[in-house]
Amino acid sequence: MTKRKKPTKAPEDAIRGTKSIEDAREWLRARGIEDIECIVPDQAGVARGKMMPVGKFLTGPTMSMPGSILTQTITGDYPPDDEDYKSDEADNDILFEPDFSTLAVVPWESDPTAQIIHDGYHRDGRPVETAPRQVLRRMVELYQHQGWKPVVAPEIEFYLVKPNTDPDYQLEPPTGRSGRPEAARQSYSIAAINEFDDLFDDIYDFSEAQGLEIDTLIHEEGAAQMEINLLHGDPLALADQVFLFKRTIREAALRHDMYATFMAKPMSREPGSAMHIHQSVVDAETGRNIFSDADGDPTPEFFSFIGGSQKYLPAVMCMLAPYVNSYRRLVRSSSAPVNTQWGYDNRTVGLRVPNSSPAGRRLENRLPSSDANPYLAIAASLACGYLGLIESQKPGEPVSGSANSDEIDLPRSILEAVSVFEECEELVEIFGKRFVSTYRAIKQAEYETFMQVISPWEREFLLLNV
Q1: Cα–Cα 20 to 30 A to 206, which of 61, 104, 122, 289?
Q2: Residues 332, 338: contact at Cβ < 8 Å?
């Protein structure tokens, strides 16, 4: 009997991504797309770019934008020049090339609209050193040169809150279908998720339309705090998914008169929000997990990856916890880690080894907060493991009890974090001096604007007492 061949899908039938501009032309035509969002993730993970008619995009998909968009702070300002950081006085354009594998619809738009993520290049063809997507790609290439392929699976926590139009007022949980806001811890509660069924239906529908795959959705510990887990895969593809999921969840929440926030610590009495990153490394040729040997036991490479993470993660905290608010999450005796201890199935450590089969052996980095740029957080986490592998680092002893009541063994502020990053020669070498000095300058400028705001704490305790 002759085996019947499965019909080959036409390029325009794919939900997400095409291989070329020719395939993209058919994909856009088949869907009647009128406009396309050409987007670039900046240092904060904010989508920058241009909206243009499809006809214009197809006649010249490369777009140019000022290079300064990659030096912009979260407040829209720009860092001042100093000894190591120099801005481009002419504010020259850089080129952005579309990655056709990221082409997808924008399901919340009223008119037929698509989106596509772009990569930054200098006019001589070199990747732009400060573009977050290129930073992650460079880190993956370090693994490729060793015959390895990193695999990641992010978990993203976020809060749903009532609309807040005055920043002087504290955030509050939203009202669900019962007509009452949450007032108690609801970890893993199905009923608490059901309070927002209509919203989550939109999130799932929007995600499916974009070809984004959700592994699980759970209710986390905080009031109206949720977590979405993604399937494991290629680091760049997963960073793209986190980037797009954040947009998707925010847009869905707005449809239901709510905000979705990825702030690390949006409410003082509630737990912080994390972006946990599960990581493993496979042999590029065989696909074998290098963290397990033929007998299923952990390999020296596995422990070196842990050792490198323990040694270098404090020096990349500025990318794992990028804002002043991020450090409010890292407090003792809470659900957040305060050091780089590691342990088996221990949620109080910064580095957890989940229960798994030998093929699924991995290390979970629990330090990043949900406000982190996914490209930079994944790049930073992989960089630490890579250095551990190259240097054959040895980890400390695993912790079996509680580790988050110990002393805080991490930078305590963004200024301390960027200083430690800039002083680590090994990390400067693999991230590049240009990126390190630019990122440091941005974070220092953001801190200066924060210092211009007088907090309620200062009015409460200093106004009449000092």
Answers
A1: 61
A2: yes
CA distance 324 to 329: 10
Measured between alpha carbons, how far is 78 from 268 in angstroms, rounded to an integer? 30
CA 74 centroid distance within chain: 16
What's the pLDDT score for residue 1?
A: 38
Check: CB of residue 443 under 8 Å from CB of residue 418.
yes
Question: Of the ranges 12-21, 92-101, 192-201, 372-381, which one carries the lowest mean pLDDT score?
Answer: 12-21
The 10 Å Cβ neighbour count of residue 455 is: 9
pLDDT tens digit string along 309-355?
999 999 999 999 999 999 999 988 777 899 999 999 999 999 999 99
Residue 359 DSSP symbol: G
- The rounded mean pLDDT for the chain is 94
The two structure tokens encoding residue 246 = 């954040």
This prediction has a pTM of 0.95
Number of neighbouring beta carbons within 10 Å of residue 164: 14
Residue the block writes with tokens 């992650």 = 136
Q: Are 231 and 181 in contact (CB under 8 A)?
A: no
CB 120 within 8 A of CB 94: yes
At 275, give phi and psi (nearest 5°).
Answer: -125, 85
Give 131-164 as a DSSP string: -HHHHHHHHHHHHHHTTEEEEEEEEEEEEEE---
How remote is the C-alpha of 306 from its chain's centroid?
21
Among candidates 318, 422, 439, 431, which has minimal Cα distance to 43? 439
DSSP for residue 106: -
Structure tokens at 79: 């860092």
Is there a contact between 264 and 329 (Cβ–Cβ < 8 Å)?
yes
Give how far Cα 256 sits from Cα of 201, 203, 210, 424, Å: 11, 11, 20, 46
Using CA atoms, how far apart are residues 364 and 184, in angstroms rounded to an integer?
28
Q: Residue 37: helix, strand or coil by DSSP? A: strand
The residue behind tokens 């082409």 is: 103
CB 35 within 8 A of CB 53: yes
Q: Would the pLDDT of 189 be above 70?
A: yes
As a residue count, the chain comes to 466
